[in-house]
Amino acid sequence: MSTAAASSLQLNGERRFFLAMAAALAICTFAGFARSYYLMSFTGAKNLAPLVHVHGALFTGWVILFGFQASLISARRTDIHVVTGAMGIVLAIAMVVLGIVVAVTRSQPPPIFTREEFLIFPFVAIGLFALFVLCAFANRHRPDYHKRYMLLATINVVFPALARMTALLPFLPRGVLGAMIIANLFLAALVLFDLRSLGRLHPVTLWGGALTLICEPARFIIARSAWWPDVARSLIH
What's the whole-model pTM score? Predict the structure, then answer.
């Protein structure tokens, strides 16, 4: 096989992989919020505050946009991808701002945490999302870096959906622990893809995946620390 043919085959495989990951994340998002948000008219779920509706619409928009962007690359329409990418930056900024507001004013902790302790969980998810989107924007002319940063950003931002999806998967721990397991499966898929396609871990996969993994136990450590509840209490009140 010629070098050009091998390169084209690898590129096509990369496009299919990221499109499949975008589709899987979209399915997880719908599954996690189907009962309480997407299908609330049919499930009898309680009405949501307007702020929460806007929050849900923005985060849903991101997941849809991520899938749309991946499909554009798969279809080789990078021209449209660049234009819609600018919309993604505006959307991401709005998500970070509203995500913090909703976390502070509307977060509902599981029974094992107080509201103050639990606040670190959405904060870390939003922080990682913002960091990876910023890195993706800075590397928008380096496709291999850009797409991995965007994937990591989306894995972190759908964390609440993954936590809720665990109610549908009785073989997983409920809530944040189960969400971490599912998120790590996405990370594992990226690692395996890198090893198969590159023969090594891509730098973004290595440091971005490591940071995501480190932040998992860090959430619990910070939540149970002596100082975090006081910080969170000052934000909530």
Answer: 0.91
